[in-house]
Design brief:
By secondary structure, the protein is of the alpha+beta class. Among the domains are: about 120 residues, 2-Layer Sandwich (Alpha-Beta Plaits), CATH 3.30.70; about 40 residues, no CATH class. It contains eleven helices and twelve strands. A three-stranded antiparallel sheet has the order 1-2-5. Strands 6-7-8 form a three-stranded antiparallel sheet. Strand 11, helix 8 and strand 12 form a beta-alpha-beta unit. The longest helix is centred in the C-terminal third of the chain and has 19 residues.
Length: about 325
């Protein structure tokens, strides 16, 4: 530990990972109070910082060359964008000899989560500070259902960390789940319902009660004029199973018809047909964990690493 600290910036009090750093914790565990090795001679304290990635920074001066990030990129994500460059004292983590933005990095964040220091750090943590509380939640981007820890400082969201016990993602995520959550606090986000009589009228904010009553009145008027088959519902592939269930229940129970569909039907109709003909049901018959036990996986016209990174990591 003394050898590590002798070639590490002594800026713990101003470091963005202060209080959330494994190197700092382990120094405390072993009772390190003094370093016998001087700061003379060669070191890595003047190494540059790579800020090319929009979501995280890479402060090379704080790297202890533990190779965790390299293994995470290889064994968890499977991108192989990171490597240990050089030999001996010159060994260092490198995104293929270039910066992160120009490399094969897909910004999944697995390396950031694995880093024991502040070498790889979310820019939101640098700007806002270390989170003080955690709320378990589900990613809102698609219907896979990845589990996350939403880490906050007060009521401000600082970062999203994949939950290791998550049944769908098992501690991993794609770039959208981990970093693209800015919409949650974006100033353009609409938090109140609005209605208008016609497309030429300006929108006006109303209460939820008035909005629901307005929608109900207009929908009933459409059915009264054109028949009960004139209304239907289309759910999004981003919805969870529970949300899709609510949509189909509303259409069947409230609208009185079976006019319910989902945007996933178009792209998944061939797979649904194949499953129906082969297994007798058009729904998926396996869970994520079963993929690891398969003897053979046949892919036709698909690139899971790019299109379904969480699935590919399993």
């Amino acid at each position: 530990m003394e050898l590590y600290i002798s070639d590490h910036p002594l800026d713990c009090l101003t470091c963005p990972a202060n209080g959330d750093c494994e190197l700092q914790d382990m120094a405390g565990v072993v009772g390190l109070r003094d370093v016998r090795y001087g700061l003379e001679g060669a070191n890595h304290l003047d190494a540059p910082t790579d800020n090319s990635n929009p979501y995280f920074s890479f402060d090379e001066s704080k790297c202890i060359a533990c190779s965790r990030c390299v293994r995470a990129c290889d064994e968890v994500q499977g991108t192989l964008a990171l490597t240990i460059e050089g030999r001996g004292f010159n060994s260092k983590v490198s995104p293929g000899g270039t910066d992160f933005m120009s490399s094969d990095c897909v910004s999944c964040g697995a390396c950031v989560q694995a880093c024991p220091t502040s070498t790889l750090q979310e820019k939101t943590v640098i700007q806002i500070g270390v989170p003080t509380r955690t709320v378990e939640t589900t990613c809102a981007y698609c219907g896979v259902g990845c589990s996350f820890k939403a880490e906050l400082k007060g009521n401000e969201l600082v970062r999203m960390v994949p939950l290791k016990s998550g049944g769908a993602n098992e501690g991993h995520s794609c770039v959208k789940g981990r970093f693209a959550w800015g919409y949650a606090s974006h100033p353009d986000r609409q938090l109140e319902p609005m209605v208008r009589e016609s497309i030429t009228d300006p929108w006006r904010k109303v209460s939820w009660e008035e909005a629901i009553a307005y929608a109900s009145t207009r929908l009933k008027a459409v059915q009264a004029k054109y028949g009960h088959q004139s209304i239907g519902g289309i759910s999004s592939s981003r919805c969870t199973n529970e949300e899709v269930f609510v949509v189909q229940k509303m259409v069947r129970a409230a609208f009185g018809n079976n006019n319910v569909d989902t945007c996933a039907r178009v792209c998944h109709s061939p797979t649904g047909y194949g499953l129906k003909q082969t297994f007798g049901t058009s729904a998926g018959t396996q869970n994520f964990a079963s993929v690891a036990k398969a003897d053979v996986i046949l892919l036709i016209g698909a690139n899971p690493t790019d299109a379904h990174p969480v699935f590919a990591s399993v």
